[in-house]
User: Fold this.
Amino acid sequence: MSHALPVTPLDTLTAALRRALPVLPVIAVIALLGLPIAPSGEGGANIADAVSGLVVLCCAVHLLRTRRRPLSATAAVVLGLPVVGISVAAAGAADVGAGITGLTRYLQVFVLVPAAVLLLVRDRRDLRLLAWSFVALALWQGAVGVHQYVTGTGASYQGEDVRAVGTFGPTDVMGMATVVAFGVVCAVALALGAAEPRRRTIAVLCALVLLGPLALSFSRGAWIATAVACGAQLVLAGVRRAVKVVAVLVATGTILVGGLGVGSSMLQERLTSITQVADAPDQSVTDRYTMWAAATGMWREHPLTGVGLKGFPDYRDSHASLALSSGSDIAGAGAAYHKQALLSPHNMYLLVLSEQGLVGLLALAGSWLALLVSALRGLVRSRRPAQGAGNSANTGPDTNTGSGSGSGTDCALVACGLLVWQLVDFVYADIGGPSTVLTGVVFGVVGWWALMDPSATPAAREAAPAAAVRKEAAAR
Assistant:
């Protein structure tokens, strides 16, 4: 009679690492965004971008080892649709070198990295692991940002070095705001969908803690996108719960801003400026609208294919009015004062429209719309097993993980929330800077839930049993 050996903590850790091995490269990309960025950096490629290339390579090796069919026809079309507009715009670029650079960046963010993440994520446990990785990165960047505000070592804002920018520096003031916002959205989703009270409590606390550094980023676009995304998550999770959560958030905000005075005067002025877009806009709003008008002018002259990738800076001055300033003031967080040129319209839709024309915008927006519709349909399907026990569509290795596994509501809310945040934020921002690679990871997470989760598509559901058999055979 054989006796089972006791399981040690080392054995548990080894088993967990072995199980998470395929997604560890993706987690590495997220973790590397916590490293400091050189203050003089111009927003080019960084180590996280380089590792994202390794993620694509790891995905290819993983597919060869498992002999797994890469993508369903639907997933291939949805993920590959942006290639059409990107390729046409790259071919029409005035500068060949700039066109190749733009082509590489667009393919990285919207095609290759999303496809690699989609294929490396195997089940909902992997997706939850990535969601918690977003939260961990947000907590780190948020802690650095709060320290910058308290000690006066952040980026310059209204003559004071108090703007929280994390490790991204003053040249990418949206970097920390984006990372922290992703953390808030993931934490809210995990709190709303988690089955275990302990995990739900931890997620709630993380979301509340992250609201502080998000406020101290002074990023109006991130505030608006986060409010819309979290509001959508609350509505999708249930109206009654939404009312309760909103009440808690209002109370917390009142304590932080009204009671403790956390950046009260600056935050009040920044919040007020959101509504002053017509009567008395500040210079940043004026610059934004001027560049939006310039992008629209470029599109009118080149309606189908645009002016070519990376062509906006070359055509900007000929289409912008005199209201456009010479650039943004950059200072603080270890950088000397200098002007940063305005090289994009700070609106992803208008950037694509001006450089890729209607062909590019319809291709990209069509891909994003397909992801959104599929993600919402997956959310609806994920709730059916919870309403009727014994539904075989949701059985498998993920059903006993103890974090809302039976319904997958937390995963659905993570995907829907991240996508809504990104689509809203694209009204106020575009790709660029060290944090851009995280956008590719987000689209990969959304793509897995929308296109690969067994509850989301019939094709993935049919492929799940075969994958399980191969996994079991490999374990033997």
